[in-house]
Structures are given as C-alpha cells and as structure tokens.
Amino acid sequence: MSTVDPVHNPKEYQNMLIDLVGEDDPLEVLERTSSALREMVAAAGDHLRIRPAAREWSVLELVGHVLDAEVISSARYRWVIAEDRPPLTPYDQDLWVDALRHNDADPLELLETFEALRAANLALWRRSTPEQRARDGLHGERGPESFDLMFRLLAGHGRFHIDQIRRTLDTVRGSSPQIA
C-alpha cells in the first residue's frame, strides 16, 4: 500500500483514507479498532519497540500515533458540533510521537486510554443528529471537514495503521532492525 503525504497532498490523503473504508459502515470499522490494536500489541511480543528503519515507527509508536489521532479527533468532533465553522488546527504527527515518547510508554496504558476515548467518540456519534454530522470546521491543510467526513477519515486512518503495524511486524521479525 502506498503512502500519501497528508500535508503535501491533503485531498489525495483524504481520498486514500475514504477508499480504505469503502462501502463499510465507518461505525463498525471504528468499533473493531480496539480489538485489532490489542491483537497487534500481543502479537508483537518482544518486537513491540523495534523500529523497522531509522525514520519509521515501531509497533508501540504506531499505537501511540493512533491514540494521538483519537485525541485530536475527540476535540475536533466537539468543536464542530458546538461552534460555527471552527478552525481545525493541524498537528505534526512525528513531533507528537517523539515528544510524547510513545516508544517508552506502557502499552496497556496507551490501549486503555485509546479505548476510553474511542468509546466516548462512538457514543457521541450515536447520539449526534444528521444536522450535527453535516456541520463542518475549517482544517488548516485540507479545508472544510464535516463531522461525518472526519469520522470516515478516522476509520480509514485506523485501517491504514493496523495494516502498517502488520507490515512493521513482518519486517522486524525478518530482519535485524533498529531498537529506538
């Protein structure tokens, strides 16, 4: 699967994530992410913190990144529902992964935090109205994004990174990668 730069090709990035969801219900996709992450962390064993290459993330860093996206999405959903066309500030995912030291984190803590936020966001989705889902904010790199679009993007984002975790595990198990 090719990677699209979300900053330099924002619309292409959106399309890639939407394509990963396809005709599937994004709610169902998002409901399955927690168990998939838990399975990947368990499968990683002693490969959890190993980077496949110098500028690539370990399994644990990928889990931390998925958590970061959930944190950001939590705020964006609420801003869009409550405020009129709020600005949606982009963030530098690499800075977050490094500064928050995800590779040094307790995997169980990352998973539990993710699961709590995901549950809150799914509950918010379920109680939201069609009008609320259509409301949008102005993303600093991608332009207008509705609650519905952001929800779909997050479903594709999870699928993308779960696949990336699988590829990372395949790589670190079959080579002599770098420990971060």
- Measured by DSSP, the beta-strand proportion falls in 5-15%
Distance between the termini: 24 Å
Rg, nearest Å: 16 Å
- The unreliable regions are none
Largest sheet: 3 strands, mixed
Helices and strands, in order, run as HHEHEHHHEEHE
The CATH homologous superfamily is named dinb family like domain
CATH class descriptor name:
Mainly Alpha
Overall spatial form: globular
What is the helix content? Answer: 55-70%
Class from helix and strand fractions: mainly alpha
Counting DSSP E segments of at least 2 residues, the number of strands comes to: 5
SSE blueprint and pairings:
Layout lengths: L9 H12 L4 H19 L5 E2 L7 H24 L4 E2 L4 H7 L7 H21 L2 H5 L1 E4 L3 E4 H28 L3 E2 L1
Parallel strand pairs: 2-3
Antiparallel strand pairs: 1-5, 3-4
Helix pairs in contact: 1-7, 2-5, 2-7, 3-5, 3-7
Q: What are the main properties of this structure?
A:
180 residues, mainly alpha, Four Helix Bundle (Hemerythrin (Met), subunit A), three-stranded mixed sheet
Written account of the structure:
The model has no long low-confidence stretch (mean pLDDT 93). The strands form two sheets. A three-stranded mixed beta sheet has the order 2-3-4. Strands 1-5 form a two-stranded antiparallel ribbon. Helix 2 (26-44) runs antiparallel to helix 5 (107-127) and helix 3 (59-82) runs parallel beside helix 5. The protein has helices at 10-21, 26-44, 59-82, 93-99, 107-127, 130-134, 147-174; strands at residues 50-51, 87-88, 136-139, 143-146, 178-179. With 180 residues, it is mainly α. The chain has a single domain (10-179), classed as dinb family like domain (Four Helix Bundle (Hemerythrin (Met), subunit A)).
